[in-house]
Amino acid sequence: MSSNAFGKLLTVTTFGESHGPAIGCVVDGCPPGLTLDAEEFRHDLERRATGRSRYTSQRHEADEVEILSGVYEGRTTGTPIALLIRNTNQRSKDYGDIVQTFRPGHADYTYWQKYGIRDPRGGGRSSARETTMRVAAGVIAKKWLAEHHGVRVRGYMGQIGDITPDAFDWDAVEQNPFFWPAADQVPALETYINALRKSGDSVGARVNVVADGVPPGWGEPIYGKLDGELASALMSINAVKGVEIGDGFAAVSQHGSEHRDEMSLDGFASNHAGGILGGISSGQPVTASIVLKPTSSILVPGHSVNLAGEPTEVVTKGRHDPCVGIRATPIAEAMVALVLMDQALRHRAQCGDVGVVEPRITS
Amino acid sequence: MSSNAFGKLLTVTTFGESHGPAIGCVVDGCPPGLTLDAEEFRHDLERRATGRSRYTSQRHEADEVEILSGVYEGRTTGTPIALLIRNTNQRSKDYGDIVQTFRPGHADYTYWQKYGIRDPRGGGRSSARETTMRVAAGVIAKKWLAEHHGVRVRGYMGQIGDITPDAFDWDAVEQNPFFWPAADQVPALETYINALRKSGDSVGARVNVVADGVPPGWGEPIYGKLDGELASALMSINAVKGVEIGDGFAAVSQHGSEHRDEMSLDGFASNHAGGILGGISSGQPVTASIVLKPTSSILVPGHSVNLAGEPTEVVTKGRHDPCVGIRATPIAEAMVALVLMDQALRHRAQCGDVGVVEPRITS
Amino acid sequence: MSSNAFGKLLTVTTFGESHGPAIGCVVDGCPPGLTLDAEEFRHDLERRATGRSRYTSQRHEADEVEILSGVYEGRTTGTPIALLIRNTNQRSKDYGDIVQTFRPGHADYTYWQKYGIRDPRGGGRSSARETTMRVAAGVIAKKWLAEHHGVRVRGYMGQIGDITPDAFDWDAVEQNPFFWPAADQVPALETYINALRKSGDSVGARVNVVADGVPPGWGEPIYGKLDGELASALMSINAVKGVEIGDGFAAVSQHGSEHRDEMSLDGFASNHAGGILGGISSGQPVTASIVLKPTSSILVPGHSVNLAGEPTEVVTKGRHDPCVGIRATPIAEAMVALVLMDQALRHRAQCGDVGVVEPRITS
Amino acid sequence: MSSNAFGKLLTVTTFGESHGPAIGCVVDGCPPGLTLDAEEFRHDLERRATGRSRYTSQRHEADEVEILSGVYEGRTTGTPIALLIRNTNQRSKDYGDIVQTFRPGHADYTYWQKYGIRDPRGGGRSSARETTMRVAAGVIAKKWLAEHHGVRVRGYMGQIGDITPDAFDWDAVEQNPFFWPAADQVPALETYINALRKSGDSVGARVNVVADGVPPGWGEPIYGKLDGELASALMSINAVKGVEIGDGFAAVSQHGSEHRDEMSLDGFASNHAGGILGGISSGQPVTASIVLKPTSSILVPGHSVNLAGEPTEVVTKGRHDPCVGIRATPIAEAMVALVLMDQALRHRAQCGDVGVVEPRITS
């Protein structure tokens, strides 16, 4: 199976380099009959776009999705859905200086070591540009999950640097450029990020994703566990260095009597597990959290070596994201949605006969 | 592909329930010519065994591995290696009371909801008993990695409850029942775990794994990234709730100027990345960390419901692990080794012609 | 994915060598709730067994299947079903002379060239012994298909040497050791096979398989076509050199006006297509045909080379099948059943919402 | 894994409908460093093109391949290679009448039954238009096989209707529009096909493919056999109803003493096996043969039903291939090349250490 594809029954294959002619994806396995229009991709792509606000990189990409296949008269036909976005704003000159240099914290050196050749323009294949297609594919998964199962997948920023939300309101999340759930902290965040930008440095971030409405029974043990699939899907996002389900690493210090979620007929008493037990959804909200490392492309000079094997100093000029984690929010949502839809189809394949099992705990 | 299998080119398929006749696995894709003897599994299986010490569950399993196929005159032949362990110490009566009850924190309820039927004896398929076969398969991967690439994969406990190591010595790790890297803390740990056991409760743990000697270039972008594969392999271990690569969640608070590992001809200046950039190994040690939730089977009563849909109280009698994380150390090592061997074979398939690429940074 | 596994959603992984300790398989993806007992494997295994009659090899294998996992209180649980058969009648001395020699028409030379090592005892992994586990796995698929979809998969001999059936009666097929559909020809076949055996030679055969009751819509275009999957499943049977669907090679000489199966409300006017159009079942019986080459292990001496690279002559002593094709009948049935069940699950995954589509042609 | 993808290590995913905006493919797993230019696709695409001669359908498609990714400065980089061809000559009006009707011998009815929706324009996804991308992907495989292993994959027509070649000359094959290996029969073939066209009917065909230079050892037993993979790859081509390896169905009537290819130090005495033993290449030429059914879209009226469930008569107007098998020659070559390259990579992954094994038979 292709290493540029993921999903077992809903398979998404992406292609394209940051500064090549185009990026795209093939979504295979989507059930027939789903209405789909190219306009529907716009909202999430704008949420992801680097030009979304001045707090992320100022490169503006007019990401126009073209549906090349798999849709007839506005509905999916069951055949592969190919999506294409032309790269229109490449400005290759910006990247001329990195052709000869391995940027610290980037994949330049490792691609070079693996392949003996690399497309250095804008990071080539290793650029976060690829995640655009994940977001596009995720739009399809979100829509199918909502229509067929009432599942809603939403993300928000859980931490930027040392700042954590002091309140939580889903409505606030989409009202500010940080996907921040506490409206009153937004001005302080602006100040913080602006200061970072001026200093030429960057900072890490945490993104949380919550999927509501997931029925019990999704997820395949042992190596197709719902949490296992979420882990690889989320870890595969550029810059992600860790994945948690439910309480995650906080469980190190917890006691069993605290962590295990007790049950009654009215539901679970808590959700430390993040809605997954034994790799299978419990009916509670599925919660996952990721950490994104601070942007490596910063104005602060860094030591490195060049292609000739000589020591050199790297300074990123031009575009610069003080916190790449911010725009990872819709990407993380997309990956969670794609995993859930894949698991929904897998569950239906094996357990399509099972029906509703009693007792079912309210959640 | 089977959900009870993992790995693309080194594929491990496991089977078996905790209290069924046997557990086993099929390891497919191992190159021919590796010497292999059934005795070689003993060491790591004993490290994993619940009877290893009084600090973990006292059930003693005499895990005798039988090699059913794939080895001829002491060497692998390239055909699938089937390994079998008979379940000899099942004591089903211990588990009689859980047949009718969904234990909080366990997969009882979710398996029931998914399949409408479950083998309740000892947790059935969701029991950590399955991980025995991961450890056995990992023995093969560790050996091949060592012989062919000089790679060494080792794990240790990074935290138990709130206790963290105050020193680090690889030699200490194998000298105590906690895989603890600081010998002087062992008596205190014994006291702590004994107190926990007496209280009938349990605690979480962190396990760290380090793979030394991994050459640059292993790992397949985009959805076959080395870190992505590690994440799903490690998250699939029972009770794991989080996975980190390198600095992991600590990166939330880091600045880019701190996190990115600068390079010189003499090597990398640091290893915040955990030896992986863009999903590909950099030549530095690969480091991963996992958290295991506290054992859910404890003596402290917990609320739940039973098969009839009535409220009930669950108390685990008999065997009880105060910290399941301890014996996860060899399991995590095995999973890391299996992922690395798989990636080594994948790299050889696609990049077998590439040869040594210059400049190569010493590490 | 393992090369010793097949099937996407119903995945069968086999292991074992002809003269190793055991052969076995892991069947993953079977829906929960199917009743299953070890006795149910007996019938088809006896149909396949070499000791079935004096017309096939006289080696008698007492193939006792042990269910190692996946079944609880007589019903499948949705977890992997591992089946094991111990090799009890190995008589390794029979094969002593072939250790140093590459038998013409066998895989001896090619395994040696691929792996640089091989288990020569009885052909090792390349022995038709492996097909025992296909038959066992096929029992599960046949049962599920019958219970859930009313599908029946049956095979018969379509040709032995130049002899073809002069009548057709399903009832006759199971009444003679040749799976021959014309009872009156059986004595002549006995004479023919006995003469072949005495001459020390062997002959090829054709096996036909028919699956009745397959509903329209099974099969996944483009590279998961029902006929494509049947082709690889059937070609993977030892000694098979060709696969046909429907009219197969006879279509070379047909005109379009003859071959295309016209339709009316009462059904298709013919079934040249073998029940598959565009890779998807049409609702007509699915028909496939295979050819098996004549046994290479014969008493007639043949030229070859030995391990030392010297010319040598090979004569097979002892057991000798004058027509290996005969016992391929239940193997071919099993492969067809496994492919169909896999496709049924795949169809349910993607098109589980579609329901009955009108107009549906009676068939 | 996607049903619109094939290959384990060299994975080709295709997308697109006959009359959609475009068709395309993603080739993943190609080793880095292969030179590749869009012009290189032209030759084989023209060989396949329907407009190649007046003996096949007169629709002319200007198939201009655009390389969207995976190539940098004229060389492959190891990242996925996406190829795109815009559909420019759709003439949808030609197909207006088939929207309401299920054409006999086509996939119209089965797609409708499977999905409950279909793109009827030109056959949609089930059109042979899709094979354009197989040919394009095959160009990459042919080139890599030639450069790295000296393998050459060539096809020719083995039979049209009842006409078989009376001579064999590779040079002749590319000198006539029928890929016919006997030059003196070409005028008679022209007469034959013209008469067929006038009669409004069509005829079946056999295509043979030969791969020279395949080293011993390629192919993975048991379910990844070289012949098994060839069978599914070739059977997946539109209109194919049978696949043979080596002597194929002729082996029914052969004796073992005739069929098995005896060996000496100077090579094999014959090649009945088609270069494959036990699923692994022997070093002899790999030979495969397929049958393609006669075109179903003919001028002769045929009975069918329409969407409303009423009886109707179907007559194909306009374009009409009297023998679709002719243009299958480059498609079959492409599929064989793709399978061989995939197997070459798989072999290198598992047996990269084995080196040259003695004794090696000259071939």
Automatic annotation (TrEMBL), chains A, B, C, D:
<keyword id="KW-0274">FAD</keyword>
<feature type="binding site">
    <location>
        <begin position="238"/>
        <end position="239"/>
    </location>
    <ligand>
        <name>FMN</name>
    </ligand>
</feature>
<dbReference type="GO" id="GO:0008652">
    <property type="term" value="P:amino acid biosynthetic process"/>
</dbReference>
<dbReference type="InterPro" id="IPR000453">
    <property type="entry name" value="Chorismate_synth"/>
</dbReference>
<dbReference type="Pfam" id="PF01264">
    <property type="entry name" value="Chorismate_synt"/>
</dbReference>
<keyword id="KW-0288">FMN</keyword>
<dbReference type="GO" id="GO:0004107">
    <property type="term" value="F:chorismate synthase activity"/>
</dbReference>
<feature type="binding site">
    <location>
        <begin position="125"/>
        <end position="127"/>
    </location>
    <ligand>
        <name>FMN</name>
    </ligand>
</feature>
<comment type="pathway">
    <text>Metabolic intermediate biosynthesis; chorismate biosynthesis; chorismate from D-erythrose 4-phosphate and phosphoenolpyruvate: step 7/7.</text>
</comment>
<feature type="binding site">
    <location>
        <position position="278"/>
    </location>
    <ligand>
        <name>FMN</name>
    </ligand>
</feature>
<dbReference type="InterPro" id="IPR035904">
    <property type="entry name" value="Chorismate_synth_AroC_sf"/>
</dbReference>
<comment type="subunit">
    <text>Homotetramer.</text>
</comment>
<dbReference type="GO" id="GO:0009423">
    <property type="term" value="P:chorismate biosynthetic process"/>
</dbReference>
<keyword id="KW-0521">NADP</keyword>
<feature type="binding site">
    <location>
        <position position="54"/>
    </location>
    <ligand>
        <name>NADP(+)</name>
    </ligand>
</feature>
<keyword id="KW-0456">Lyase</keyword>
<dbReference type="GO" id="GO:0009073">
    <property type="term" value="P:aromatic amino acid family biosynthetic process"/>
</dbReference>
<feature type="binding site">
    <location>
        <begin position="293"/>
        <end position="297"/>
    </location>
    <ligand>
        <name>FMN</name>
    </ligand>
</feature>
<keyword id="KW-0057">Aromatic amino acid biosynthesis</keyword>
<dbReference type="GO" id="GO:0005829">
    <property type="term" value="C:cytosol"/>
</dbReference>
<dbReference type="InterPro" id="IPR020541">
    <property type="entry name" value="Chorismate_synthase_CS"/>
</dbReference>
<comment type="function">
    <text>This reaction introduces a second double bond into the aromatic ring system.</text>
</comment>
<keyword id="KW-0285">Flavoprotein</keyword>
<comment type="similarity">
    <text>Belongs to the chorismate synthase family.</text>
</comment>
<keyword id="KW-0028">Amino-acid biosynthesis</keyword>
<protein>
    <recommendedName>
        <fullName>Chorismate synthase</fullName>
        <ecNumber>4.2.3.5</ecNumber>
    </recommendedName>
</protein>
<feature type="binding site">
    <location>
        <position position="319"/>
    </location>
    <ligand>
        <name>FMN</name>
    </ligand>
</feature>
<feature type="binding site">
    <location>
        <position position="48"/>
    </location>
    <ligand>
        <name>NADP(+)</name>
    </ligand>
</feature>
<dbReference type="GO" id="GO:0010181">
    <property type="term" value="F:FMN binding"/>
</dbReference>
